[in-house]
Amino acid sequence: MATDHPDQPGHDGHTHDADVHAGPDDEVVDERLQSEFDELLNVGIDVAQQLLEEQGAFLPFAVALTAEGETQVMMLEDDEDIDGEEALEALVEELTENRDGLVGIAVVSDVLLDDDQDAIRVDIEHSDLATEAMVMALEYSPVDDSSPSGAESAEDDTPYSYGELLGSVGERRIWA
Fold it and tell me: In angstroms, rounded to a whole number, what is the distance separating the alpha carbons of residues 124 and 172?
């Protein structure tokens, strides 16, 4: 159902931090967990940006961190009849079935926020049950070549501008 893509190179050179916290006491987790969350977030955003710029949209996909420390991108095979919600359900089902070999996952989707702002949503979950799941959203919009900020992005051949990275506590679905 899903195809694996080995480690993806960084897309835009930017890194993002998931700012992971442990449990309700809001204690910062150790550096290894933070690094794993950051890896899942950065690969997810990089691949999503690449897909947006190449195709203008993308179906949900997953980034998985294996017990061996490998990062894999899992995409559903092209099926014109599948919608985003069905793709999300299929990814969650596949990840849940294969969770024993995984350390952490990120499910990445193209969403519309409450204020009608497009965003890349990254749901991150770790097998360490002491950590909370995270939901990160990176706002984006098409570049308007007539605007000053559009001129900067147009020089980089980037058809989208990216805004603020938003984050909140998420819901566990894989290691529930």
Answer: 9
